[in-house]
From TrEMBL:
Its cofactor is pyridoxal 5'-phosphate. This is Methionine aminotransferase. Keywords: Aminotransferase, Pyridoxal phosphate, Transferase. Residues 29-377 form the Aminotransferase class I/classII large domain. PANTHER family: FI04487P. One of its GO terms (molecular function) is transaminase activity. The keyword Transferase applies. It comes from the Bacteria.
Length: 381
């Protein structure tokens, strides 16, 4: 028998895979995993067909130049922030790769990385794989998952190498404001702390709010890797196309990592997106598109025993079931998938230490008929 201890003994099949599998087996409406239940536009499909001819060899390691320029231009027109496409923009295979390369290029064994729970499931294992020490700060629903800046201040030590930011937030739908960025900046100012900012839901914010990107704050921007994804914005999660925006001194190190992970990403997809990105209408309508779905889903729970938690962004709605059941959220989500045929994600899995909260996360990036059928079933409980 060959001795082969796992490098990640704590890592198991993700809850997303488990719940999606269960949803398929049970023939349940799948509001668990975060992907759209509808296709991307015909126009984008046509662009891929067009660029699949003659653009089928390796792309440059950093991304095809017209694509990087297109990303820089879009960032400029959306945020009013100017980026150098050659030294600050890198194309990667999904935000997952951006997170992996950003964390690995800056975290050395023994370094601490602070993250707020509930936190996206990739952060902790990536930090551990780099030899780093994840430092979890739990947030809770009673104050809208707001960050206690004083507590963050107390958790920062001389070993703190980086802090993970995720706004709009998966799974809670919480968003950071410009005031949050100010409070955050005053804590990291004068330190060598870096920021890995996961902004994959940047174009999905509700009720007229503006996405507060760390790019908008010079104190934060100079120390940030901004990880983005086209999957959420253009309904193409299966393409695994993303990018990392970072100042040149960080981009240089980021690219050293990226070249050993994937080297480069799918060439025809890069050309297609380079063109598609040029039309702001392709992403500007996204917030209202998803706000309508959020409101449709939530409307079924008014007057029910479910408590609707605020969703300010992303395509997730959290519901508190404390009045309905004493079961753990994992047990309830499994039971609802089997009995009610509606799949969800238990929020406790996003915590290092599961909280008292009894909350399930539902993805409303689905066709309206699916949203209505699922909500109708759930609201009866
Ligand atoms: C918060 C967050 N970050 C990163 C990702 C991964 O993005 P990608 O599919 O582009 O790798 C997701 C996908 O669900 C996400 O929700």
């Amino acid at each position: 028998m060959i001795h082969f201890p796992s490098k990640q003994p704590q890592v198991q099949t993700t809850i997303f895979t488990k719940m999606s599998q269960l949803a398929t087996e049970e023939g349940a409406l799948n509001l668990s995993q975060g992907f759209p239940g509808f296709d991307c536009s015909e126009e984008l499909q046509e662009l891929v067909r067009f660029y699949a001819k003659g653009h089928n060899q390796y792309a440059p390691m950093t991304g095809v130049p017209v694509f990087r320029q297109s990303i820089a231009n879009k960032t400029n027109s959306f945020y009013g922030v100017s980026l150098n496409a050659d030294t600050e923009v890198t194309v990667v295979s999904g935000a997952t790769e951006a997170l992996f390369a950003a964390i690995h290029c800056c975290v050395s064994p023994g370094d601490e990385v602070i993250m707020f729970d509930p936190s996206y499931d990739a952060y902790d294992p990536i930090v551990r794989l780099a030899g780093g020490i994840p430092v979890h700060i739990p947030l809770n629903s009673s104050n809208g998952f707001c960050i206690d800046w004083e507590e963050l201040g107390r958790k920062i030590t001389p070993q703190t190498r980086a802090i993970m930011v995720n706004s709009p937030h998966n799974p809670t739908g919480a968003i950071w404001s410009m005031e949050d960025l100010d409070a955050f900046a005053s804590l990291v100012k004068g330190t060598n702390i870096l920021i890995v900012s996961d902004e994959v839901y940047e174009h999905i914010v509700f009720d007229g709010a503006q996405h507060a990107s760390v790019l908008l704050h010079p104190e934060l921007r100079q120390r940030s890797f901004v990880c983005g994804s086209f999957g959420k914005t253009y309904h193409i999660t299966g393409w695994k196309m993303g990018y990392c925006l970072a100042p040149p001194y960080l981009t240089q190190e980021f690219r050293k990592l990226h070249q050993w992970v994937t080297f480069s990403s799918a060439t025809p997809l890069q050309y297609a997106l380079a063109e598609y990105l040029k039309t702001p209408a392709h992403y500007l309508g996204l917030s209202s598109f998803y706000q309508q779905k959020r409101d449709l889903f939530a409307s079924y729970f008014e007057g029910s025993r479910w408590k609707i938690l605020p969703s300010h962004g992303s395509f997730f709605q959290c519901l508190d079931y404390a009045e309905i059941s004493n079961e753990s959220d994992v047990d309830l989500s499994v039971r609802l998938t089997k009995e009610l045929k509606v799949a969800s994600i238990p929020v406790s899995v996003f915590y290092e230490t599961p909280p008292e909260d009894r909350i399930l996360r539902f993805c409303f990036a689905k066709n309206d008929d699916v949203i209505m059928e699922a909500a109708q079933k759930l609201a009866q409980l």
